Amino acid sequence: MTASASAAPATPPRRPLTTLQAPVVIPALVVVIALLVYCALFHEQADILFGQAQAWVTSRFDWFYTISVTGFLVFLALVAASRFGDIRLGPDDAKPEFSFVSWTAMLFAAGMGIGLMYFGVGEPMQHYLAPPLQAGSTPLAAREAMLMTFFHWGFHAWAVYGVMGLVLAYFGFRYNLPLTMRSGLYPVLRDRINGPIGHGVDAFALVGTIAGIATTLGYGVLQLSAGLHQVLGWETGSTTFRVGLIVVVVMLAGLSAATGLDKGVRILSEINLSLAILLLVFVVAFGPTVYLLEAFSENVGHYLTNLVELSFRTYTYQPTIKPGWYGGWTILYWAWWISWSPFVGMFIARISRGRTIRQFVLGVLLVPATFNLLWMTAFGNNAIWLDTHVAMGALSRGAGNVDALLFQFFEYFPLTQVLSGLAIILIAVFFVTSADSGAFVIDTIASRGAPNSPVWQRLFWAAVLGLTAAVLMIAGGLKALQAMTLVAALPVTIIMLALCYGLWIGLQADRAHYEPDLAHATSFWSGMHWRKRLAQIVHQATEADVRQFLQTTVLPAMQEVSAELRQRGVTSAVNHNPDTADEVSLTIPVEALRDFVYGVRLQSRLLPAFLITQSASPDEPDARVYEPITFFEDGREGYDVQYLRSEELIADILRQYERYLSLSSNRSTHLLNQAPGHT
Questions:
Q1: What residues have CB less than 8 Å from 637, skipping those under 6 apart?
Q2: Residue 533 — very low, low, confident or very high, per pLDDT cuts 50/70/90?
Q3: In the chain, what are the domains?
Q4: What is the pTM assigned to this prediction?
């Protein structure tokens, strides 16, 4: 290469024309398009069909949703409490990307959105008027209203998100697999995740995510239009106006994606969170403050006391409640959370690299759930108190119109117009960021986590979200959106149960290297050649000693294993740089999975003062010790192998390869059985 050529600037990699995975995208789009066409051409029939579909799923699978969502919560608790809780989401030596304060703040932000704005007043008031097991508009009704609101927005909701986030973070950061649902099934399906089954899993996730986000956009546009009518006096009740709002929001989301304003969206989200906290503090400060603080304490106690019973309640002995209240509230919520789980799960996974599983579970379950419960108390209990002490039933009479109920609630506070305007800004920005972020997550699923996706793909998925919300709103309003979410979440629930099983298998295989027989390379030493080993132990190795060990012991051992593998039809390569001689590695490439890598590198560390020997004088504070330390592709913590002989090093390589194969094959001992010299 000439000097001029070497000095030429590197050409930046070109973005591919598309990264979409056809086997995933085409089936999902066929389902979505068929649904939209049917709704557009047959409005009334679609409305009836959606209602029947929701009733059918509720009447036959309510128990399945109940047990599954409760199972997710129990599963997370067991994983966090077990020995698996110490495993890091990433290499063993990975450090969290964000400080604890920043991490909890982002989890705090994840718990806030259009849903809390829409249901903060509406749900407690509707439960207060028509609770499932109490007489309406009574003190007991108020208590049960807050209990059911806490149940719907508490630990169960975040257990759904937590399972999805943990699966994505574990297989994504620990094993370098794509951030898609199929990756979590690798221990179960193995190479079949690259075939029709894996494509089907991601296609179901795609349809479910579109349905869940479209439902949320539907809630947002209904409340936003009601707020504009309340504050500005606009006529916003027509379908045309609401569809126009969706178009504007999708255009803003598309502008964000096209111009790369990710930083701008992040700043907007932080501002939105600050405004939400300001709104929360204002409502508590200018409401019945002492009553709200007392109510929060009692609400939490009542919720925790009844948590087990609520988790398994299916209203079997109250059959009149099942199809209406239970199906229209609890089961719909569980389906909604499941549909949103790929979206929120990916967000919390991306910010949690370097955390232990125990930190992840506790943070995800406690931080956003606590904020949700505080928000519901501040707005829900406040609304019930105002209705009975100040409004004289006016809020109860307006509870049927949930879209405008929040703004009616603000009428009983000072600075009503300011509060309403602030709420409109909050809803609008949540609306835009949900559409933009949703398009990003959908594109990630559709392209199987491929980097450098072209911008037009995010624009395309933003348009699909807007079109879905608009057409379904025309077809049957929020009822159609709710029914679609409920039905689409059913197959996703089944997939999530399989993900829990796959994660458990992966955790067991991962933890195996901490067991005594695999934790250290010397654990299987028979005691042979003890004099040589003793001489090595009492002699502090120098940098030159370690380099010589890498070249004369480690490198030949790896070359011997590599040659044997090639004879058996297994591709492998030994990598080393003779100039530096500070690192040697054996690599076995595996398609659709991270490569197996067993490496040894020279590492140095300061020698503690109390361990300084004759080879390092106490007058030399920077005396160092040099060691040959192993490293692996999954980033696990390495160990010192300087005392191993060639055959012992080969045995250690085979043991680590056996562990690696335990994730991809039941024949976990096949290499040991065929190894040279094995008896």
A1: 91, 92, 93
A2: low
A3: 22-510 (1.20.1740), 520-674 (no CATH)
A4: 0.76
